Amino acid sequence: MIKLVDLKPQFQSVKEEIFNEISECIDGGNYILGPKVKELETKIAEKIGVKEAVAVANGTDALVLTLDAYGIGKGDEVITTPFTFFASSEAVSRVGATPVFADVDKETFNIDPAEIEKKITPATKAIIPVHLFGQPANMEEIVAIAKKHDLLVIEDACQAFGATYKNRWVGSLGDAACFSFFPTKNLGTMGDGGIITTSDSELANRLRSLRTHGSTKKYFYDRIGYNSRLDELHAAILLVNLTRIDEWNQKRRQLAGRYRERLQDASNIKLPYEADDRTHIYHLFCIASDEREALREALLKEGIQTGIYYPQCLHLQDVYAELKYKEGDFPVAESLSQTLFAIPMHPFLTESEQDHIISVIRQTGGR
Questions:
Q1: Assuming Cys at both sites, which of 76, 103, 149, 192 could form a disulfide with 97, CB separation 3.0 to 4.6 Å?
Q2: Whole-angstrom Cα distance, residue 117 to residue 144?
């Protein structure tokens, strides 16, 4: 089976280094928010080009805590995309605010700035653009809209560690940014983890309090907080993988280039678009086809995994029935949910495996 994402060879390639880092953790005796976490926060802040990085338990918590730290809650609205993983809107709902959806761009699959402006009301407090599948959203226009209406911009960068927009790293483009270290992410660990990046030191201090039950001094509490701390072992693993992330992302881009070159004339699919001013790091390589199920079945018969991202838009999920959205409200996002699917993409995908995938796609009506 050619897996959609194969983590085993990736972690095997750094196994000895990870063992050494974990051994240091065991010998050091600090297991939560210890020196490895601090080192990770410092190195990520330096890499991305921001003043602060605050590690938390997972990417969803990164979003929740950031919204909470900004005081967003009941009666507030946050504009985001209906075509992404549930956590982007779930975090808004978790703090008591209302997610407001805006349709996406048909080429990049990211939230369309022109649609954002149509959704702004006096209750709007923030915009959460998602850098979907590893391609940055149109941040210049989004930030301009936010400044015009005095709104916050919180990047959901959970799928995009190492991507760039106009020569700036994702994670440095808004007021704050949220990353996930789930194992399948480009920069991942062997479990859950997340981090928030910002150049707002006051926000960072509130986040550090929120992640430890609202405390700034042991057993004294300033606010209602959370238990959302990064384990030292995960920080150790991430420090190793951080030294490889640019190499791994470049390998993804090379593989994406081979897919493009060999599938550019395939008549049954549409390849993903890559904007000239952005570095797409291909967390997923998604193609669109009106023959999606036939293609997926053909690939599966040849031992090739695929995945649908995402089969139902967020505005049509049962949990948001009370928001009264209906089919047809966001035609671009809804069309993508019916045609888009991911084919294998990870840094250790071999060229022979990739050639087999390409061959099957071309043979299934795609010459």
A1: 76
A2: 11
pLDDT of 365 strictly over 70: no
Any residues with CB less than 8 A from the CB of 74 and at least 6 apart, and which? Answer: 96, 97
Which H or E element spans position 114? helix 113-119
Bridge-partner residues for 196, per DSSP?
A: 54, 178
Over residues 150-199, the pLDDT tens digits come to 999 999 999 999 999 999 999 999 999 999 999 999 999 999 999 999 99
For residue 317, count CB atoms less than 10 angstroms from its CB and return exposed for 0-12, middle for 13-18, buried for 19 or more.
middle
Of the candidates 204, 190, 163, 177, the residue with the CA atom closest to the CA atom of residue 38: 204
Residue 173 to residue 136: CA distance in whole angstroms: 10
State the burial class of residue 197 (Cβ atoms within 10 Å of its Cβ: 0-12, 13-18, 19+). Answer: buried
Look at the domain 245-363 and name its fold.
Aspartate Aminotransferase, domain 1 (3.90.1150)
pLDDT one-digit tens code per residue, 188-242: 999 999 999 999 999 999 999 999 999 999 999 999 999 999 999 999 999 999 9
Task: Provide the residue ranges of all domains of the chain, joining segments of one domain with +.
Answer: 10-100+107-242, 245-363
| Share above pLDDT 70 across residues of the chain, in percent, rounded to a whole number | 99
Roughly how many angstroms between the first and final C-alpha of the chain, as a whole number? 24
Counting beta carbons within 10 angstroms of the beta carbon of residue 275, is it exposed (0 to 12), middle (13 to 18) or buried (19 or more)?
A: middle
Q: How far apart are CA 341 and CA 9, in angstroms?
A: 24
- Quick check: helix, strand or coil at residue 65? helix
Query: What is the CATH T-level fold of the domain 10-100+107-242, as seen in this structure?
Result: Aspartate Aminotransferase; domain 2 (3.40.640)
pLDDT digits (tens, 9 = 90+) for 261-293: 999 999 999 999 999 999 999 999 999 999 999
The CA distance from 357 to 302, in Å, is: 9
CA–CA gap between residue 267 and residue 333 (Å, rounded): 22
